[in-house]
Write a structure and sequence with these properties.
6 strands; alpha/beta; single chain; Rossmann fold; globular; 6-stranded parallel sheet; about 240 residues
Length: about 240
């Protein structure tokens, strides 16, 4: 499913729900991480056609392969639904034998989505969003394990009432800031002025993500890319079709 790639610093990127060109949404993040010396798996997955556990198992398979190719540890960067996929996949790292690195969650429904809750019994939503549409409801999202590693949360908002007046509190138009939080489990947290779909495309979000994976902090001075070597990591672009 993916070319053999060598490198000790590996990261898997995961897009959100219903992204027809999901990998393209994470392309800027991919390029920045490649420049910083990471081996990158920018993963596309059929979010509307398979349940959360199926996607998590696929990610675990990619992680096992990257580990076999020499990755010392494997980080995860995920947007929206991808954050729940990442958390579920990370829970299997020890059993699989690969070391889990840091995780960055961008606009991910850690506490579930009140919007999904309101729509969960609406027939068109159930048909279009499938099992993963139900997975982002509050009752289901909080059941996804939170792995024991350093986790950064980046949320979208406008610092005031948010972009959607029908949501309670600051929000990115889809999720409230509160719905993205993991109280007592976050190594760092950042709010950026952004709507939900644009969050992984923002340059400041990309820069903060690279910085966190390198240093454990979202803020601070820019991280210098490592000096080039004779063997450069090539893009790993995996796509799950099963």
């Amino acid at each position: 499913m993916a070319p053999t790639t060598e490198g000790e610093r590996a990261v898997i990127l995961l897009h959100g729900l219903g992204r027809g060109r999901g990998r393209a949404v994470m392309r800027r993040m991919e390029r920045a991480l490649l420049t910083a010396g990471w081996v990158v798996a920018n993963v596309g997955y059929p979010s509307l056609r398979r349940p959360l556990a199926h996607h998590a198992e696929a990610v675990r398979g990619i992680a096992r392969t990257m580990h076999a190719d020499g990755a010392r540890e494997i980080a995860l960067v995920a947007h929206s639904l991808g954050g729940l996929v990442a958390r579920m996949a990370a829970a299997g790292a020890a059993a699989d034998g690969w070391k889990l690195g840091r995780i960055v969650l961008l606009g991910s429904p850690a506490q579930g989505s009140i919007v999904a809750q309101a729509l969960k019994d609406f027939a068109p939503f159930r048909i279009i969003a499938g099992d993963c549409g139900q997975a982002v409801t509050p009752l289901q999202a909080v059941k996804v394990p939170v792995p024991a590693t350093e986790i950064a949360v980046i949320a979208g908002g406008n610092g005031n009432a948010g972009y959607n007046p029908f949501l309670d509190g600051d929000n990115d138009g889809v999720l409230t800031v509160a719905e993205t939080r993991l109280p007592g489990m976050e190594a760092d947290f950042l709010i950026l002025r952004s709507i939900h779909t644009m969050l992984p495309l923002r340059r400041d979000a990309v820069a903060a993500t690279v910085r966190f994976l390198d240093t454990g902090r979202l803020g601070g001075p820019p991280v210098s890319a490592p000096k080039s070597s004779a063997r450069k990591p090539r893009p790993w672009q995996a796509r799950s079709h099963s």
